[in-house]
Amino acid sequence: MKLAAWIKKSGVSARELAARVGATEATISRLKNGHALPSMEMAGKIAHASGGAVTANDFLDLGPETPSSPGNGLDGARILLIISGGIAAYKSLDLIRRLKERNCELRVILTRGGSEFVTPLSVGALVGAAPYTDLFDTKTEFDIGHIRFARESDLIIIAPATADLMAKMAGGHADDLATAVLLATGAPILLAPAMNPHMWAHPATRRNVERLTLDGVSFIGPNQGEMAEANEAGVGRMAEVPEILGAMEIIVGKAGAKPLEGRHVIVTSGPTHEPIDPVRYIANRSSGKQGHAIAAAAARAGARVTLVTGPVGIADPSGVNVLRIEAAADMLKAVEGALPADIAIFAAAVADWRVAQLADQKLKKKPGANEMVLDLVQNPDILKLVSRGHKRPELVIGFAAETQNVVENAKTKRRAKGCDWIVANDVAHERGVMGGEKNAVHLVMEDGLEDWPEMTKEQVAEMLIERVASAFSPAKASA
Fold first, then answer.
1. Which residues are catalytic?
2. What distance in Å separates the CA atoms of residue 472 and residue 394, rounded to the nearest whole number?
3. What are the beta bridge partners of residue 450?
4. Contact at 8 Å (CB) between 407 and 442?
5. Nearest to residue 341, comparing CAs of 280, 268, 286, 432?
6. The domain 3-59: what is its CATH number?
7. Could you state, in order of their start, the residue ranges of all structural domains in the chain?
8. Fold match between 3-59 and 78-254?
9. Residue 152, pLDDT score
10. In 112-246, where do the E strands start and end?
C-alpha cells in the first residue's frame, strides 16, 4: 500500500495526521505528495494513528508510484528569501539550490549579520544574481526598491530567522532592507527560526512568536537536536530544507484561498470581570489565547471578524474589529450590536454569576466578623440567547470548559443551549490549559464527535476554521 493513497482514502487532513504522529504538517504533506520517504518509525506512528486499519508492515513500500521528483507546487512562484545572521545560514544555500530546481523566480536579501556566515559571492553564484543588502543602495532604491520587493513576491521566507529579526518584526521596526520589506509587504511570510534553545524559550521570544502568529506569520520549526555550540541541545535547530519546502508549497497553494471571504464572524474571547465593589471582581483564569487565535485564523480565511474580548494581557489580532468589554452584560450588548453574522464562535469564559447589588464603596472588613456573604445572581446566558434568538447566525459554536465528564457534559450543554457545535476541553489545573499554549479538544456536533489530539492553540484555531469553512453552507452572506 502506498502512503499517499492511504492518506487520501482516509479523509484525514495533513494537519490532523501531523498532530497525531508528532510531525510537522509540511512533513506529512511531502509524504502525501510522494516527495519523500518516511522512516520505519514514522510508518509505525502512522499505522498506530490509523486505529488498526493498517500496520507498519503495510508501509514497507512507501514511495510514490512513480520515481520521486522535485515538487511543482512552487513552479514559477515569486519567492523572496531573507538570510539573517545565524550559523544555520549555511542551510540557506541548499534551500536556494532546491528553489532554483523548482523553477522559482528567486530574489535574496542578505542581512549584515547573514553576510558574516555566507558571502554575497556564494549566494549570488547560486541565485544567478547578486543578493540585495542595502536599504539605501542607489541602484535598487531609485524606484523605491524595497516596496517593489514587498509587492512582487508570492511568499517571503526568512531562513534562518534569528531572535533579533523576529523581535524587530514584532515591534514593527524598519531600520534595514529586510525589515523595511517585511513591514511593507502583504505577501505571506514564513519564518524558519534558528537560535540557542535558551533564546527560543526566553519569555521575550515567546511573546514575539505569539505576536507574529496573531499577525498571520507562519512558522516552520525550530526542531529539537544538537546545536552548533558544544554541549548545547534542545529546541532551536532550524528546520531541514525538505520541511521548509513542504511548508512553502502549502502556503503558496493556499495563498489565494479565502474560504470565508464575504462572511461575518463574531468571536468572543477572554474572561469577564464581574465587579463586587470599586476594587474587587469575580473572574476566572482565561487568558484569551484560544479565542484570539480563532479570530486571527478566521481573518486569514477572508472573513470580516468582530472580536468581543474581556480583559486580557495579550495583543489584538491583526485585521479584526476589536470590541473590549468588562462584564457579561457588556459582552451580550456588544455581541447583539455586532449581529447579524454568518458564524458566531463563543470562546469566552463568561462568569456564570455576578453580585446582586454592586457596592458603591470598597467593602471593609468588620471587627469580629470572619465571614462576608455575597448575594449572587446568574449572568445572562449569551450562547443560549444568541442560539435561540431571531438574529441567530447560521452556525453557532460554543465552548465548554470542563473538569470532569468532559464529553458528556458538552453534549448536554449543546442540547440545552441550542447551538450547533460545542468545542469541549478539560481545564483541570494539572492540564495547564488555562493560560497555557496547548489545548486538546473534542468537537461535539448533533450527528457526531471528533476527538482532536493535543496541539497548540493556534493549530486548534486553524483546524476549527478549516472545519467551519468545509461545513458552512453557501447561503447568502449576512449584511
1. 284
2. 8
3. 443
4. yes
5. 268
6. 1.10.260
7. 3-59, 78-254, 264-357+374-471
8. no
9. 80
10. 155-161, 189-193, 218-219, 223-226, 233-237
Cell of 452: 482532536
> What secondary structure does DSSP assign to 321-384, as a single string?
EEEE-SSHHHHHHHHHHH---SEEEE--B--SEEESS--SSPPPPPTT-------EEEPP-HHH
Residue 395 has pLDDT above 90, yes or no: yes
Note the pLDDT of residue 71: 44
CA angle 205, 437, 409 (to 5 degrees): 170
Angstrom distance (rounded) from CA 17 to CA 459: 12
Write phi, then psi, for 224 (nearest 5 degrees).
-95, 140
pLDDT value at 392 more than 90: yes
Cell of 337: 450590536
Residue 128: all three cell numbers together: 544567478
Give the helix/strand (H/E) hosting 441: strand 441-445
How far apart CA 132 and CA 314 sit, in angstroms, is 35
**Rounded distance, CA 283 to CA 354, Å?**
10
Helix (H) or strand (E) holding 81: strand 78-83
CA–CA dist 285, 428 (Å, integer): 11
Between these two residues, 33 and 161, which has the higher pLDDT value? Answer: 161
| Single pTM value for the model | 0.62
Write the pLDDT tens digit of every residue in 410-464. Answer: 899 999 999 999 999 876 655 555 556 777 889 999 888 888 888 888 888 988 9
Burial grade of 148 (CB within 10 A; 0-12, 13-18, 19 or more): middle
Please give the pLDDT value at position 82. Answer: 95
Q: Provide the residue type at 298 as one letter.
A: A
Take residue 268 and report the three cell numbers written for it: 468572543
DSSP for 152-178, written as a single string: S-SEEEEEEE-HHHHHHHHHT--SSHH
Burial letters for 215-229: b for 16+ Cβ neighbours within 10 Å, e otherwise? bebbbbbbbeeebee
Q: Over 50: is that where the pLDDT of 246 sits? A: yes
Check: CATH 3.40.50.300 for 264-357+374-471? no
At the fourth CATH level, the homologous superfamily of domain 78-254 is Flavin prenyltransferase-like (3.40.50.1950)
The pLDDT value given to residue 30 = 58
- Backbone angles phi and psi of 171, in degrees to 5: -90, -5
* pLDDT tens by residue, 186-204: 888 999 999 989 899 999 9
